[in-house]
């Protein structure tokens, strides 16, 4: 029973990785027609919300139901996950390569593991500490911290990549709370509505929204809404029901393989030898975590952690 419980969590993680891994390449494709990251993020959020509304109305209207007391947390979730994270990530791939932005983004486990140890009392073992260290060193190599001239040239993209990392870490911790009371689809929808609202407010300062784009743009937008914005987020939240936040975050670092591979296939991007080493170190964090003793998770403690923490705060 416990084994099957964990397998469901790993299945959701794999689906999330595939969806998130496509975000960079899809975003770069959209930049051929719309160069503004804020506009791209706003349209993506709106498209995702409309698709979810259609799906809820057709299949399960009960997914719209939430408690008013949950609105502040859902708004915070949307601000972190549907506003800050995609805006920073889409900006990062605009100013640097898809591979670099994705690998920097995946240094989030270093933050998540520490936050989870504090908020959810999840154990910080030697193995998870080693995974965090590997991730940080790998991210530093990918950002080419050893070459100040290169770091300065791509500083804007690197800063946005680090911003996406931090917001994703906070989004993960927030997700542990909201998924305790609602299905993943409900959380993704209301988070998307909140995120679209924040994006829309900021977008109004840039003037009228231009919708005169060729059909190809709307096709890429639809894929952006379906894969990274809806399915990946829903699977990511679903995995948090079965695995602890630190484990999920480190396992999703497998994007460091998926995203650069897609970028190489479709965009011809390449990494230097040291950047490849850095990507390998980030991936090594996953391999360290794969050993059975590091994956022993208490299902009940994982699901009850948010409730216990909420009680202590109250």
TrEMBL record:
Signal sequence, renumbered to the chain: none
Domain EamA: start-end pairs: 8-142, 156-289
GO cellular-component term (any): membrane
Keyword annotations from UniProtKB, A to Z: Membrane, Transmembrane, Transmembrane helix
Transmembrane region(s): 7-26, 38-59, 71-93, 99-120, 127-146, 158-178, 185-205, 217-236, 248-267, 273-289
Transmembrane helix as UniProt keyword: yes
Coiled-coil spans in chain: none
Protein name, UniProt field: Transporter
Lineage, uppermost ranks: Bacteria, Candidatus Moduliflexota, Candidatus Moduliflexia, Candidatus Moduliflexales, Candidatus Moduliflexaceae
């Amino acid at each position: 029973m416990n084994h099957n419980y964990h397998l469901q969590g790993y299945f959701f993680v794999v689906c999330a990785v595939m969806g998130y891994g496509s975000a960079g390449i899809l975003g770069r494709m959209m930049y051929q027609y719309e160069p503004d990251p804020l506009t791209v993020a706003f349209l993506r959020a709106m498209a995702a919300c409309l698709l979810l509304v259609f799906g809820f109305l057709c299949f399960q209207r009960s997914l719209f139901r939430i408690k008013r007391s949950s609105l502040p947390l859902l708004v915070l979730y949307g601000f972190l996950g549907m506003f800050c994270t995609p805006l920073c990530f889409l900006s990062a791939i605009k100013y640097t390569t898809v591979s670099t932005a994705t690998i920097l983004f995946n240094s989030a486990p270093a933050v998540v593991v520490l936050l989870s140890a504090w908020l959810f009392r999840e154990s910080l073992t030697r193995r998870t500490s080693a995974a965090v260290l590997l991730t940080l060193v790998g991210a530093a190599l990918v950002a080419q911290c050893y070459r100040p001239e290169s770091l300065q040239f791509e500083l804007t993209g690197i800063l946005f990549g680090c911003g996406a990392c931090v917001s994703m870490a906070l989004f993960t911790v927030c997700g542990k709370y909201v998924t305790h009371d609602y299905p993943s689809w409900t959380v993704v929808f209301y988070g998307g509505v909140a995120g679209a609202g924040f994006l829309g407010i900021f977008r109004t300062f840039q003037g009228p929204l231009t919708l005169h784009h060729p059909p190809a743009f709307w096709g890429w937008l639809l894929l952006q809404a379906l894969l990274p914005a809806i399915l990946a987020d829903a699977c990511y939240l679903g995995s948090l029901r079965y695995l602890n936040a630190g484990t999920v975050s480190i396992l999703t670092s497998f994007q460091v393989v998926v995203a650069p591979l897609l970028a190489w296939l479709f965009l011809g991007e390449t990494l230097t030898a040291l950047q490849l080493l850095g990507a390998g170190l980030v991936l090594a964090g996953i391999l360290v975590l794969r050993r059975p003793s590091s994956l022993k998770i208490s299902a009940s403690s994982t699901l009850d952690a948010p409730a216990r923490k909420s009680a202590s705060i109250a």
